[in-house]
Design goal:
Distance between the termini: 147 Å
Low-confidence stretches: 1-30
Largest sheet: 9 strands, mixed
Structural class: mainly beta
Shape: elongated
Number of strands: 77
Number of helices: 5
Radius of gyration: 50 Å
């Protein structure tokens, strides 16, 4: 409102009078100026509204029209009434108190008579002795709830600054007034009620919109000049009015402001070279309330300006200077604290020598933009100094910016694509950075940049770092609702979003909404101010959203409200290019949505019926139905709104999204799960319903949803059934590891070669729904399919990876030309088994069990010392190198206590799936029991075993056979260092590991090696060169007795060996001695 050197042009005589008087403009009639004192004792004035249009449109504070009246001293209340034309008067309210700072006010909701014209409003005084109470009225009023409203924010006082200036600043009586409005951009004009003139006065002072971005309703603020108001000497009252399409008035007590505090703040305390800093001066009164209209000068008297509605004014101050600022309480320009002038603290603005310190990148179109908006100069880098200010460069300096763009597509491919480049810095310290091209898809662009050193001085370099990240792509407009719907004669919100492919909104873009009615509809958009219109331009919010209100005018009283349909088109508008005002940018996006203002009032007894939804449909193929509305005598009911809803995952559709011939069938237009349709002359509406992805199919391949049609209080329901069987098009072959209950391995995806790996095989349609009863061919790369029921199983006899692959010959369905059927949609042609769909499952990693690196444990359950006769449980646990339990046979052997023993290599217990086998015994006498366990995998030896090979000595062999094969076998199994070999035979030079041969006496000679049994512990002490069979002497004697009891078979193998022995070897065996005696013949054995 106020600028330096601006004057309002008061009459010269008025200015002179003020200057001569030298008073704070308090002259006026004796006593306070109140609403009562300005009228006759019985008089009533209806002061608001003034405009002849009233509305109940929400203004951010209420949804009513304020009626205000003032009355003389005898008036104790006011009756507010209305009538239409010459009809009877209808009471609005009786206000029996001066509830608005001396005025009588009520909030009236005129909605019941919305659309009415030629309305008269009347205020009648109450409580007077007059035989005929005084009245005041406003005629020719129209009730239009689509008209925009304003509301003056009420308060306890109106703060007024009496500015008595005559030189540079404007003189006046300045008050800050603020309020709300139904229109976001409303800027109403301001006036005040002049008691002496008994009329509204003022110059229609302007206001500014202060509406935050994205707000549904508006806010505004302005400075009102109440010059000509006749102040009294007490508590004065004043009426303030804001006027737009409608108006609002509020009454206040007048508070005359005095200067309180002046502050001055620089935007920068230091400026480069000969630059300057912007100084903001703020003037408030003693209560901290901003003062509007205060004259501000700089130290020395230079005029700065006049404060605005925020109590502020700005100016520039050069670097290297110090000054204070003051507000004048009088017309004297010089600072005079004795006259009430107030000053700020001293403001110092320093200077410094700028050096390149950082880089700041900006995008003219913001951090999110459409490729269609982009120009080559839209992205730039500015060199900043140590104080964050722009750094200028001398001509020809030649410094350059090195930069790297990294692009990541929204869909993840590519995830990171780099483009490098350089750009020369201009004299203003900036350089344009082009966006990489080509730009085939949307994504995120990250910019890293650094400044090369000055080629002459070698200084001024800035290290590279990330300076900007933007998103760009092809923006689309999406409406929040598939259909705009509202009651006929009411309003409906129209909202949507302008966003890139990943959902990021584009803020600050103009979008024009255009409504086109079907037939003779009359709905129009609310405007920021002024009359409604079929078009409305809005600006997207911070998240890319936009909204507007579409009004369907109410029918005049007594006339039926008709259903109205149409459509709204949203389209981005060109806007001024931020870098080139002569050019424009445009995201070039548009969308359309249907509109229905419905009258769902059906005749009493009306019947609603849904027909046509029969049989079972499939995903991607619409089912069509009809709703018929008839009255109680069966005639059709036309032009009535039918509200259709569907639950589950079904949705309403108009058919294919792209039904061109040859296009893959199934992709449907989605209209949402609630639509409103209007019956035709036959009382019917037709609709389509479809389904795509639904978890309901994942159970049994079936889904059933319910369609509901409602007219008023009457409705009907019908089920629509779907099946995912026999799909239009195939989707995927899915092969996944089966549930644990089907698996043999507990360390999947790894499995020993002894286990099978189970898989589930599924196929889906094009939407991801599971499909049953389809044939899938399974192959296994590197393995074998061993079973397919109840789950697919793979095996492998050797170590390696095995990957299952499934192949499904799915059907192919495409759209063909419409065959003229009832639904008038493109037909579908299906070709069987023409789409080969494949899919791989998780790879199974088969491995051989490494017994050398496996773990074997034999543990006792419970206390180690037990009572004689107690049951003892021993458990044997085996796990392989991967932690998988080993399933194999275990033989348990026990000696003690006493002469007790049991166990045999032929008596084996299988470990369970947990790799555990148990052995149970009880001791019958005191003593110590020793339990051993040996695990067998197909009679294989495992780590920790001592392999005993006997009856291979000079006599038992006969001939002392070589043990090369047994030692080679152990080494091949990785057990060369984990097992010992003990034999009465001999070894070759190729033997390695713990191999002990030539045991003597040999088994055939009755040596102890012949008495070793499975499960015995053999203690081998290499440093001390001892080998002991860890059994008691009693047990050894017991075994020898048992052996010798075999007679001629004593000290011979338990089973006959298929071995050919020559006569010479037989003779040698009869005479030879054990290896400890040289294996020489002993003729004394002939007993000659």
């Amino acid at each position: 409102m106020f600028t330096s050197g601006t004057k309002k042009g008061l009459a010269g005589s008025a200015v002179t009078a003020l200057a001569v008087a030298g008073l704070p403009l308090l002259a006026g009639p004796a006593g306070a100026v109140t609403h009562t004192s300005t009228l006759g004792a019985d008089e009533v004035d209806l002061v608001s509204p003034v405009a002849t249009t009233v509305s109940a449109k929400p203004d951010g504070q209420n949804a009513t029209q304020r009626l205000t009246a003032i009355g003389g001293s005898n008036v104790t209340g006011v009756r507010f009434e209305y009538r239409i034309g010459s009809g009877p008067w209808t009471l609005i309210a009786n206000q029996t108190s001066r509830n608005d700072d001396g005025a009588f006010a009520v909030e009236w909701n005129p909605t019941p008579i919305a659309g009415s014209a030629n309305v008269t409003l009347r205020a009648t005084g109450l409580g007077t002795a007059a035989q005929t109470p005084d009245t005041d009225d406003l005629t020719g009023v129209t009730v239009d709830n689509n008209a925009d409203t304003v509301n003056v924010t009420d308060g306890s006082a109106l703060d007024v600054f009496q500015a008595q200036y005559s030189n540079d600043a404007d003189a006046g009586q300045f008050a800050v007034v603020e309020g709300t409005s139904s229109a976001t951009g409303a800027t109403p004009t301001l006036d005040f009620y002049d008691p002496s003139a008994d009329a509204w006065a003022g110059q229609g002072d302007s206001t500014e919109s202060t509406t935050p971005q994205g707000s549904a309703t508006g806010t505004w603020r302005g400075v009102l000049d109440i010059t000509d108001y006749d102040y009294g000497s007490g508590t004065d009252q004043v009426l303030v009015k804001a006027a737009g399409a409608t108006d609002d008035a509020e009454s206040f007590v007048v508070n005359r402001q005095q200067l309180g505090t002046v502050t001055a703040e620089p935007t920068n305390a230091n400026v480069p070279g000969s630059g300057s800093a912007e100084i903001t001066i703020t003037v408030v009164d003693g209560a901290g309330t901003p003062i509007a209209g205060a004259e501000v000068r700089r130290e020395g008297g230079a005029y700065v300006g006049q404060t605005d509605a925020d109590g502020q004014v700005t100016t520039d101050q050069d670097g290297g200077t110090e000054a204070y600022y003051y507000a004048n309480a009088t017309d004297s320009d010089a600072f005079e604290s004795g006259l009430g002038d107030k000053r700020s603290e001293d403001v110092t603005v320093g200077q410094y020598s700028p050096e390149p310190t950082s880089l700041e990148a900006t995008s003219a179109n913001g951090e999110v933009f459409d490729y269609d908006e982009y120009d080559a100069d839209d992205i730039s880098i500015q060199v900043k100094d140590q104080e964050g200010e722009d750094v200028p460069f001398a001509s020809g300096t030649g410094q350059t910016v090195e930069y790297t763009w990294t692009f990541a597509a929204f869909d993840g491919d590519p995830a990171a694509q780099e483009t490098e480049g350089t750009a020369v810095v201009g004299a203003d310290g900036s350089a344009n950075i082009p966006l990489p091209s080509p730009r085939p898809e949307g994504g995120t662009y990250t910019l890293e940049a650094g400044l090369r050193a000055n080629p002459v001085t070698g200084g001024g370099a800035v290290d590279s770092e990330q300076v900007l990240q933007v998103k760009a792509g092809q923006a689309e407009i999406t409406f929040d609702d598939d259909e705009v719907a509202g009651a006929a004669g009411d309003s409906a919100p129209v909202s949507g979003t302008l966003a890139l492919e990943d959902g990021t909104g584009l803020p600050g873009r103009p979008v024009t909404l255009t409504y086109a009615a079907d037939g003779s509809g009359d709905a129009e958009f609310d405007q920021e101010s002024g009359d409604d219109s079929p078009t409305r331009t809005v600006e997207t919010g911070a998240d890319g959203s936009f909204s507007a209100t579409l009004d369907d005018p109410a029918a005049a009283q007594g006339q039926a409200q008709a259903t109205e349909t149409g459509e709204v088109t949203a389209e981005t508008d060109p806007y001024e290019d931020p870098n080139s005002p002569a050019d424009t940018d445009d995201a070039d996006a548009s969308a359309t949505t249907d509109v229905t203002f419905f009258n769902d009032a059906a005749p009493e007894g009306a019947v609603v019926a849904i027909t046509g939804l029969q049989g079972t449909g499939k995903p991607g193929a619409p089912a069509y139905g009809t709703v018929t509305v008839t009255d109680d005598s069966d005639p059709p009911v036309p032009n009535v709104a039918v509200r259709l809803t569907v639950d589950g995952d079904s949705f309403f559709t108009n058919g294919p999204a792209d039904g061109r011939v040859g296009q893959p069938a199934g992709d449907l237009q989605e209209r949402g799960q609630a639509i409103t349709l209007v019956t035709d002359d036959q009382g019917e509406v037709s609709f389509g319903v479809g389904i795509e992805r639904s978890e309901d199919f994942d159970d049994d391949g079936m889904a059933t949803d319910t369609v509901t049609a409602t007219v008023g209080e009457t409705s009907d329901e019908a089920d629509v059934a779907w099946s995912s069987a026999d799909p239009l098009n195939g989707g995927d072959v899915q092969i996944d590891l089966a549930a644990d209950r089907f698996q043999e391995s507990g360390v999947l995806p790894k499995a020993p070669t002894t286990d099978d790996v189970a898989y589930d095989v599924k196929v889906t349609d094009q939407f991801g729904n599971l499909v049953g009863d389809e044939d899938v061919a399974i192959t296994a790369d590197g393995g074998e399919v061993v079973d397919e029921e109840p789950a697919l199983k793979l095996s492998s006899d050797s170590e390696g990876d095995v990957t299952p692959t499934g192949t499904w010959d799915a059907d192919t369905s495409v759209y063909a030309a419409d065959g003229g059927d009832a639904d008038d949609a493109a037909d579908i042609v299906t070709t069987d088994g023409t789409d080969e769909v494949t899919g791989d499952g998780p790879t199974a990693e088969f491995y051989e069990v490494d017994f050398a690196n496996s773990t074997f444990e034999l543990t006792q359950v419970g206390d180690e010392e037990r009572e004689v006769g107690d049951t003892v449980i021993m458990t044997y646990t085996a796990t392989d190198q991967e932690g998988e339990e080993i399933e194999f046979d275990v033989a348990f052997f026990r000696t003690g206590p006493g002469n007790d023993d049991d166990g045999s290599a032929d008596d084996r217990v299988a470990t369970g799936e947990d790799g555990i086998a148990s052995y149970v015994f009880s001791g019958n006498t005191e003593g110590r029991a020793r339990v051993s366990a040996i695990g067998y995998v197909g009679d294989q030896v495992v780590a920790g075993d001592v392999v005993v090979i006997r009856y291979e000595g000079p006599k038992g062999g006969p001939g002392m056979q070589e043990m090369l094969y047994p030692t080679s076998y152990l080494k091949s199994k990785g057990l060369g260092k984990q097992c010992a070999l003990l034999t009465d035979g001999r070894f070759s030079g190729g033997t390695s590991g713990l191999s002990i041969g030539h045991a003597s006496p040999e088994a055939a000679e009755g040596g102890a090696i012949a008495l070793v049994e499975e499960g015995d512990t053999i203690a081998i002490d290499i440093p001390n060169r001892t080998i002991n069979l860890d059994i008691s002497d009693e047990e050894l004697a017991h075994r020898r007795s048992k052996m010798e009891a075999r007679g001629k078979l004593a000290y011979k193998p338990m089973e006959m060996r298929p071995r050919r022995v020559s006569t010479a070897l037989k003779a040698y065996a009869a005479l030879t001695t054990s290896a400890d005696r040289g294996a020489v013949r002993d003729l004394s054995q002939l007993n000659l």
